[in-house]
Design a protein that fits this description.
- This is NAD-dependent epimerase.
- GO terms for molecular function: aldehyde dehydrogenase (NAD+) activity.
- Pfam families: Epimerase.
- With about 280 residues, the protein is an alpha/beta fold.
- It has a domain of about 170 residues: NAD(P)-binding Rossmann-like Domain (Rossmann fold, 3-Layer(aba) Sandwich), CATH 3.40.50.720.
- The chain has twelve helices and 13 strands.
- It has a seven-stranded parallel β-sheet, with helices on both faces. Strands 6-13 form a two-stranded parallel ribbon. A two-stranded parallel ribbon has the order 8-10.
- Helix 1 packs across helix 7 and helix 3 packs parallel to helix 4.
- The model has no long low-confidence stretch (mean pLDDT about 95).
């Protein structure tokens, strides 16, 4: 695929990472069809240069047909259950056949890393992402040209998770929270960098898993301090759970990763190396 342009079918194209990924694909000369559940989603992907495909992640026939019309598939959409995610993945893999299928995982599945680790590290997921194991195993065992990208905590632009769970509540209370002493590292990656990794993954070896992290992992307290302009507050994990729900366990993880595999295999090198400066400007 390195020497010619291809047609890519994308789910989650109207979302935070999806729009950036459409931009990255089109910048490489690829044609993009993107699943769109609503009219506003269709308009969003169209604005970024993709052709909308009407349907939802729960429509296996639509997914299979759209994948069959493409040379490659990138699955970014967030399913509500493991069963839904796996059914969607298998439908698209059936459709794309021998073409590349890129599936989305995440770094939280590794739990606390106790130092810098890579894709060979054992899994120790908090409950909120424990379901990913059966899906990723099934995708890789399918025996087709499947690739998995595991993004870190994405920042830049809208920030999404960080903004929703930390920035906005902090503005309401006057202090951005961090959990415990806040010394746990967050494995961050800029939205534009992870988008380029998804685009590069079209050239990946079948059966490969890639960590998508930016190489700089500030502590949760450092993030809170820039988001709150110095106005922060420590909360317990129990308090965080009451405020955020099960995702609090994931935000409390201490994680550091190497993205050497993506660099060595695909030439991927994150361009954004100062997440605190980017977050300070939010």
């Amino acid at each position: 695929m390195k020497e010619h342009h291809v047609k890519v079918f994308l789910t989650g194209g109207s979302g935070y990472i999806g729009r950036a990924t459409i931009d990255a694909l089109i910048a490489r000369g690829h044609q993009v069809d993107a699943l769109a559940r609503t009219g506003s989603a269709a308009e969003a992907v169209r604005r970024h240069g993709a052709e909308p495909v009407s349907g939802a992640l729960t429509d296996p026939g639509v997914l299979r047909h759209a994948a069959a019309a493409a040379d490659a598939v990138i699955h970014l959409a967030q399913a509500s259950t493991a069963q839904e995610d796996l059914a969607a993945a298998l439908a698209m893999m059936d459709g794309v056949g021998s073409g590349v299928y890129v599936h989305t995982g995440g770094t939280w599945v590794y739990g606390d890393t106790n130092g810098i680790v890579d894709e060979t590290a054992p899994w120790n997921p908090p409950p909120i992402v424990a379901w990913r194991k059966q899906v990723e195993d099934a995708v890789l065992e399918r025996g087709q040209h499947a690739v998995i990208v595991q993004p870190g905590l994405v920042y830049g632009g809208e920030n999404r998770l960080i903004d929703y769970f930390f920035t906005q509540p902090g503005r309401e209370t006057g202090a951005v929270p961090y959990i415990g002493d806040g010394t746990n590292n967050w494995a961050l990656v800029h939205v534009d960098d992870i988008a380029t990794l998804y685009a590069a993954a079209l050239d990946a070896r079948a059966g490969t898993v890639y960590l998508g992290v930016g190489g700089v992992g500030p502590t949760a307290r450092e993030v809170a301090e820039v988001l709150g302009a110095g106005s922060t507050t420590s909360i317990t994990l129990e308090q965080a759970g009451e405020q955020m729900g099960p995702i609090a366990d994931a935000f409390a993880l201490d994680q550091r990763f190497s993205s050497a595999r993506a660099h060595n295999d695909l030439g991927w090198k994150p361009l954004h190396s100062d997440p605190l400066a980017v977050l300070a400007g939010c």
